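ingest -> validate -> predict -> emit
validate: passed (alphabet ok, no gaps, 293 aa)
predict: started
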Amino acid sequence: MSSAAPGTTPYYFVPQPSRHPVMASFGLFWVILGAGQWINGAGWGKYALFFGLIWLFGVLFQWFSEAIGESEDGYYGHKVDLSFRWSMSWFIFSEVMFFGAFFTALWWMRSHSVPALGGLENSLLWPDFKAVWPTLAAGATASPAGIIEPFQTMTPFWLPTINTALLLSSGVTLTIAHHALRENHRGRTIMWMWITVVLGATFIGVQGYEYFHAYRDLNLKLTSGAYGSTFFMLTGFHGFHVIVGMLMLLFITLRLMKGHFTPDRHFGFEGAAWYWHFVDVVWLGLYTLVYWM
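emit:
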């Protein structure tokens, strides 16, 4: 902890060396090792993965609890607030690059890889191949070599469209909650935050059912060629980000119920809101490029 007394705001808060980074790294080591071994058929891999996740979540709980305590005790002043804002901005920028790479992979396969496979030099190898993206032509989804089972593509109606309405509505309710907090209406803020959390959880449930429908009714799997891999890669990673964002909003709501945040000091709320709006924007791009085009 800082040498400053509780309730006084230092110019810049510098915490003492912490055990949390190395402890979190230890948990991540077992997560990566376990996941890699599980994928490659080692039975003990799943236990290592779950151990690492439990360890990591325990460390994060302690770490975040200490950070919340420092914030509520008045250790975080203007300079720390600025550093948090820059950190969150760069983190979201890294996420933009993350999804940008996946959207670029989708575009590259549509515009370059698939047309190249249908070119003259490949016509002798795959004379029946149709150089058309699966979402644009019926019957082009089966593998000429017979290594991929025929499948159907996912259309925007109705599950993806319902999820779009849910996610956009959650962005509106979150904005209403933010304005209510700035006007010091805590009860109204909490109500709208709970509505936002419920909308986010509903989105996750609908996407889970969409995956079930894809596997059972459409035979659409991660192994269904370039279309299947990009579909599940983009929607799956976005769904993971929705889960993370929903948990962030849930914890912010619980903190609001405990009396945390004021109309003038609530960056924890704002940071979670930035992340959620980013998730909304990514979904709009995903909804257009994956489901409609």
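The two ends are 54 Å apart (CA to CA).
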